[in-house]
Design brief:
The protein is mostly helical. The chain has a domain at 49-78. It contains 2 helices and no strands. Helix 1 runs antiparallel to helix 2 (49-76). The radius of gyration is 19 Å and the shape is elongated. The protein starts with a helix and ends with a helix.
């Protein structure tokens, strides 16, 4: 039984890429959430269009992170 180093390298590359993707998506989500005001209403001001877009972008980023994590768990624990 031999070791297929190319396959091990491929798995390492994909794992590293997905890890970087999740970290970047989460960071973008935190940044967008902070720009939107963190979900809190500011006193005396209305939420602007950019605040709403930033909040929506944050939700999309967090949902993508959750989907990737759920898919990884599904790969590990089938059924």
């Amino acid at each position: 039984m031999g070791t297929t180093w190319g396959t091990i390298g491929g798995v390492f590359g994909v794992s590293l890429g997905v890890t970087v993707l999740v970290v970047v998506m989460f960071s973008l989500g935190v940044t967008a959430w902070a720009r939107s005001g963190g979900g809190a209403q500011r006193r005396g001001t209305r939420r602007g269009r950019l605040d709403t877009v930033a909040a929506a972008a944050a939700v999309v980023c967090f949902a993508a992170c959750l989907a990737i994590a759920a898919y990884g768990i599904e790969l590990i624990i089938p059924g």
